[in-house]
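Hi D.,

Good news: the full-assembly prediction came through. Inputs first.
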Amino acid sequence: MIKNQPVSLKHIVSQNEGNIVSDMDGEKVMLSIKNGKYYNLGEIGGAIWELVEEPVVIEKVINTLLSEYEVSHEECKEHVFSFLKRLSEEGLVQLEDPEAAV
Amino acid sequence: MKKTWKEPSLEVLDLSMTK
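Then the structure:
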């Protein structure tokens, strides 16, 4: 997992286990069994969460979002990078650099 | 028709029973 390293389009992101997830009024809410914290990912955060259910390259996540939402590539990329780093800091997702694994 | 984008945010509430 990366710590304090820049995220790139080539990074692979995947959900960590140990979370109870539910939809509440269009927003994704989640309880982490590991740290006892309750999270509200909101509507778009919830959409991103669903896209990373299986390990996936971040570039693919962004392309999917671009096809569904009215947003520029640059803005979407910055927001997704920031959000995924936040999820990673909370231990909710894994971020893997495929080049570092070689 | 594409949906409106809003910056995703993570709202955290600590419900830990051990702290």
